[in-house]
Amino acid sequence: MPKSRLEELYNKNIRPELKTKLGIDNIMQVPKLTKIVLNVGVKEAVADSKILKVVADVIAKIAGQAPVRTIAKKSIAGFKIREGMPLGVMVTLRRTSMYDFLDKLINLALPNVRDFQGLSLKMDGRGNYNLGLKEWTIFPETEKSSFENVHGLNITIHTTAGKDDFALELLKGFGMPFKKLSK
Question: Which domain range does residue 39 map to?
Answer without folding.
Answer: 5-45+90-174
